[in-house]
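Methods — Computational structure assignment.
A single polypeptide chain was analysed. Its primary sequence is given first, followed by the predicted tertiary structure written as structure tokens.
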Amino acid sequence: MPDFACRTEATIDAAPKVLFDIVSNLSLHVELAGSGELKTVTQKPAGFVETGTRFLAEESVKLADGSGIDVNADSVVVICDTPTTFSWIVNPVLPDRLRRVQWWFHFIPEGDRTRVVHEVEVDFGKLQDEMLKGLRDNFEQVRAPVIRAGMDRTLENLRRMAAR
């Protein structure tokens, strides 16, 4: 069971494939991410995205008080099921300190529209670092509001990008 999970959804006037193509295009993630935390995303190696594709994200992770920390996150695509599901695991977000952060987009057709479900799970695992124990113990106050707001903005960004 994760230490934190969040799910948000929106219905967007676009076909699932259109939305899947935006979300699975890693070069669009800086624009897509509603958190404003992503600075760069580099796919390694460049090319077709599929299960097993790796990418490096440079980001400034924000806390609810406005402070933050710069991190590099190595991620791997774990589900690339066109046009229904795209998921990746941040592997690890903080080296040797955090067990798992996993993100999902699910695309469910509803007539001419698509219901998009966006999810995240955070599993701290067995922490040794006192700072991270404090983050875990205060996650609802310190980090969760930033994640929830960012996920809602991500879906608004996806809506805007699909309308182009």
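Note: The chain has a mean pLDDT of 92.
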